[in-house]
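Known limitations

Files may contain more than one protein. Parsers should not assume a single record per file. Below, a two-record file is shown to illustrate correct handling: read the sequence, read the token line, then continue until end of file.
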Amino acid sequence: MNQKLISVLFGFITVMLINGPVFANEAEQTDAFPVTVDLIMDEVSDISISRGQFRAVAEMLLSWTGNNVGLVGAPESRTLMGDAIDSYLAENFDPAIFVANAEGPREVMARSLTLFPDGRAELFEKFAVKLTFETAIPSYPFGDLDLHLELQSANHPLPGLAFEPRHFKFGHEEIAHEVVKGNWYLEGNRSEVDSVKSLSHGGKSHFSVAVFHIKVAHDFVDVAQKILIPLLSILLLSMFINRFSVIYETEDGGDNANWRIGGQLTLLLTLFALNFSLGDDIPATHYLTMIDALFVAVGIMVVFALVWGIYVIHVFQTGRVELGTKLEHKSNAVFMALAFVFMVWVSGFALLN
């Protein structure tokens, strides 16, 4: 009898050990809270491709149902403000979130919690935050940037809290204003849900992440005025100096040597100054962008024209007039061919995006 009893107990314990995780998972599933996320972007500004950051002002609404029994059956909804929100969330389900790609804490401008008789709860928050992004735009100033805002669950791992993005809009229809500020314009938007591991809860749990993507492109007119026209002007002036400066026919060479060297040297220094002044308008990447390639191409052309001019002047001033004349005339074709090759190379970056 004792052996049978021991066998029954042993079998029961074995079954519980095997099926225990299943029961635990079923319990977790019953505690799961799908949280709907609505987001309105009020402002996207201070986009810096050199630092990889931008500023956003947004309105967020988190909605959930199932843990608001204290108000079920009440005649009307109730809205909580200030410390009353924290007190309620401390005793009930708290869908705490943080902005995963923020450089610091978000600045909360307004906050309210509305409780409905049917068990629904809606947490509204308007906030400002400085966000980071990847400056992956090899065809800059063409192409687009993927700005994004990542809302991650802070306290409840999956499946205890699962985000469900519902609405993602820009601005309010009643107010006419540009949401994306500066020399950028909106090209599109989308939202998605992902999951990520966190050191919280022992580092083994996955947390829900709602990602809101903002696709923006740079204004071409601004880029043309600041970058393209100055760079192409430097390139053309360098080629004009090399082509139309007086050919030396005597050993003394006169003052033309000073102009030949001084002109190219001035263009080279201007190129360095332009690159320095455009620091905030050029992406800081570990690879070449289209603008970087254009700076490299123009720089090589100017340096080559400077070195070539010094050598040709030296040839003329040492009395080798015939050789100097040949070099002078052939240099025009060489420079045109080199400029064409560089322009084809630079144009190829427009296809990389």
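...continuing to the second record:
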Amino acid sequence: MINRFSRRRFLQSSTMVAGSGILSSSLVPGRGVLANDKLNIGVIGAGGKGTADSEGVMSENIVALCDVDERALRARQGRFPKAKLFKDYRVMLEQVGDQLDAVTVSTPDHHHFPASMLAMNLGLHVYVQKPLAHTVWEAREMLKLSREKKVITQMGNQGHSYSSTRKLVEVVQSGIIGEVREVHVWTDRPIWPQGMSRPQGSKPVPDYLDWDLWLGPAPKRPYHDGYHPFKWRGFWDFGTGALGDMGCHNMDAAFWALKLGAPTSVEADVSGVSDDTAPKWSVIRYEFPGREDLPPVSLTWYDGGKKPSADIIGEKTLPNNGSLIVGSKATIAFREWNPNGFRVLSEGREVPYADPDPIFPRVGDNPYKEWIEACKGSPLCLSNFEYSVPLTEMVLLGNVALRAGSKIEWDAKALKAKGNPELDQLIRSTPRKGWRV
């Protein structure tokens, strides 16, 4: 490992070399890490998904661990005994930010934006769990800053790194299934409470938890075990519901293959939505315009036990999570979380086809390896913010529509629901005092 002094000396000399037009390709933007150097990584969010994310980057130097729950922090400390421990990522970045090259962000959704923005402002590369942000505006701001700071970015929708997903995209884009105008995507989530009011009353804050830090930018709420751990996902203050949790996974393949971008309109049918929580179930329809030589597309999302008809592919049942990309020649049935991939079907039978030439690199189904190598100068990871921010914005617009209770017409450039200024508060929220970045 290059020490901080040597790394900075190298950066200074590299800047001078760059002026003569011979900057080495082994130096990447952001902090500037050599291909053979180990990254110094700070882990923001050590429990839950943070456990998997820290394991995923353990080939590098884990310099700092941060979590508001001491149980999670101590559990990870046993795995990374040399790491410095923090409860507040603001303090962590202030005290050891100059020792870091990158961070992982594996917090509840409402912390993704401030943690990532603070890190990128320091020139740190970021690996951020899905959805990237809590609101559409936050996602757009994250993209702007990543461009300004020229850092390497990756969203944690790991299926984007699967060889099967990349092959699916190549099959669709090669024209094997014909023209696509219809897509269906579904999930078995929520597997946590939704469709109710906030917990009443309060409970004593456990001695292992810093509740005020857990709340962070969210509104002040009394502690209740109905929020932490895990159940926060259904509450608008902290999470983004079943759609936010799974949309960036399950809609990824279709969004990528069809180059969908921003929808023109979104509307939803729901049950049990409230000012406090996401609904018990939802069916959300996104309309996308034509793109280049591609036709308009209708994409329907289902959660809470809702699914499209299995008749679309001539079968009796559908898996718990999946998508159907309906083409004029054949339909792709994609079962999420299945590295073995997808089927190409017509009239209930599998259609033989010749594999198209690969377009995208195969990375061994490993998003962490892809991100780490990109931080060291390899080609960019493919779920970087240029891709994953538009995907996140599209997903989160579904939540705006289901909370609006009516169809919204979307102006992507202005970040506005046309004729609905009252929805601005859902597109951009106001952080609690002390958490504005």
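Parsers that stop after the first record will miss the second one. For reference, the second record is described as follows. The longest strand covers residues 281-288.
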